């Protein structure tokens, strides 16, 4: 038993993407709400003396207001505290189940008010608990299936792109080229042999340039945005793989993937993420 428990804990700690695309969330909400209302209709969970349109319109409105609240809380507040690589499976499950409780709570309150049931605290708690248990099963199954699907897709992409990057590196032999970036500070210029460059990372109005010097990784901080720095870079071997990262293609040793997406492995165990919005551009660069 401890062996399976430890294995389960390992899986729960696996990385998972934190995404809140309004269109996808809305479609998922409409599907689940439609199924729930259809189920209530089939089992007769409504006041037959009351207009069905009035009852289910109110029920849908209650769920929709809850959906908007959940979406805004996720996209505007929770997402601000989520950094790359820090979100994982158990956090996603916890987040989804937490908002499931809110949905169920509001739904029960509406049912109690609309049907004049007058739940006791015990009945209310039991109804909430049973509904949560029943509702949590498909949610957990869906999240795990989504994780496995994303993992499989990323592994296939990683294997393909790994071959492409090797071919690209063979066809583009290193040449003596200098990278020059001027900062926003007058007379501040950073120069480096392009072959020594690893990657560039942004931090608001600054960028950190990571490079090799005598087989050691060093960095240099410049006051300039990543967008403006990219305008000064002419080498085709430096591409943007993430909103916060530029990477030197010849420094990539391996491409791996997990449920969150692709990862670039650079010398000395450095890992640079490839965001989903840049996958197509990254792939097109390697194909060309």
What does this structure look like?
The protein is α+β, with helices and mostly antiparallel strands and 288 residues long. It has two domains: 2-154, no CATH class; 157-287, LytTr DNA-binding domain (OB fold (Dihydrolipoamide Acetyltransferase, E2P)), CATH 2.40.50.1020. Helix content is 53%, strand content 20%. It has a five-stranded antiparallel beta sheet. Strands 8-9-10 form a three-stranded antiparallel beta sheet. A two-stranded antiparallel ribbon has the order 1-2. It starts with a helix and ends with a helix. 20% of the residues are buried. The mean pLDDT is 86.
List the strand order in the largest sheet.
5-4-3-7-6
Q: C-alpha Rg, in Å?
A: 26 Å
Number of helices: 7
Question: What is the averaged pLDDT score?
Answer: 86
**What is the 3D form?**
elongated
Taken as a percent bin, the fraction of beta residues is 15-25%
Q: What is the H/E order?
A: HHHHHEEEEEHEEEEEH
Residues in helices, as a percent range: 40-55%
| Residue runs with pLDDT of under 50 for 5 or more positions | none
Q: By helix and strand content, what is the structural category?
A: alpha+beta
Total tally of structural domains: 2
Between the first and last Cα atoms, what is the distance in angstroms?
51 Å
Counted beta strands: 10
Major sheet details? 5 strands, antiparallel
